[in-house]
Amino acid sequence: MNELERHELYRTVFESPNGELVLKDLADRHKVFSTTFVQGDPHATSHAEGRRLVILDIIRYINLDVEFVKEVMKERDARERRNYSN
Question: For the chain, which terminus, N or C, has the lower number of CB atoms within 10 Å?
Answer without folding.
Answer: C
